[in-house]
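Table 4 source record.
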Amino acid sequence: MLKVLKWEFIRRLKDIAAFLIFLLGAILLSIVVPSGQGEFSQFIAMVSSVLGGLIFVVSGIYLVVVTTSDLRKSSNVLDKSVAKSPWEIIGAKILNNFIYLSLIYGAVQLLSVILKRFATENTSYLIIEIEPVAILVIGIILPLSILFLYLFSVSILHIKKLPILSTVILLILMSELISKVTDLPLFHMEITGRICLIVFYVIFTLLLYIGACLIYEKYYEV
C-alpha cells in the first residue's frame, strides 16, 4: 500500500504543482508587502485572499476530475501494474486527494492568519474562512461518490458514450436522496442527531469505497 501511495503522491504532485506555487506566491506576497492603509497594500491583501479561497475550491474540484480521468487513461494499466488490488488503487487515490487538500487547507489558513494584519473596513470581509468539514467532503466523499457512480455507469449500466453526463445525472440524484434522508427527524435531534449524521456518513463512505472497488475489480474495463 505504501508503494502505491508514494506512486500516487508523486504523480499527483505534478498535476497540482501549479496550485501550490500560486498559493505559496500569495503567502509570500502577504508577508513581504507592508500592512497599512495604502491602496497597493489593500490590493495585495484582496488579491491574496481571493486567490487563496479560489485555489482551495478549484484544486479540490481538479483533484476529483483528475482522479476520475485516471481510470479512462492508459495510466490505468500502469496503476494495475503498481498495485496488487483495486482496493489499493482506489484507496491510494482518495487518500492522496485528502492529503493534498489538507495541505492546501493548511496553507490557506496560514494565509488567512497573515491577512489579518491587513484587516480594515475594506478588506476584513475577505479573510478566508473554510470549515474543516469541507476537506472531508471535497477530499473523500465527493471523489468517492463520483468514482463509484462513474464505474457504476460504465460497467453496470453500460453507458460508455456519455459516461460523464450520466455520472453527473446520477450524482444529482444521489445528492437529492441523501438530502431527503438527512432531513428525517432522527438527524435533527440536538445530540443524537449529530451522532447519527456522523455514523450515516461514515457508513455511506465505506459503502461507496467497497462498491467502487468491487465494480472496478470485477466489471471495469478501459
